[in-house]
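Worked Example 4.2. Consider the chain below.
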Amino acid sequence: MENKTARFTVLLDPRKKRMFEEICAAQDLTPSQVVRQLIREYVIANAGNRELPAWLLAASKKTATA
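Applying the procedure from the previous section yields the following structure tokens:
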């Protein structure tokens, strides 16, 4: 798993943000958890010929089985 974190700022419409937060809360997830999951899935799906680290693939499998 990653040791350090980096801030990622996203600008979006306040209505979409509110709806996103409501849906996350209904699923007992934080918006950050959902965004990290989406980024993991995107990186894995679009990595091309890049070798993916084992921790990334393991984190993706945990999410899929949860």
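The CA atoms of residues 39 and 50 lie 16 Å apart. The chain has one domain: 14-65. Compare this with Example 4.1 before moving on.
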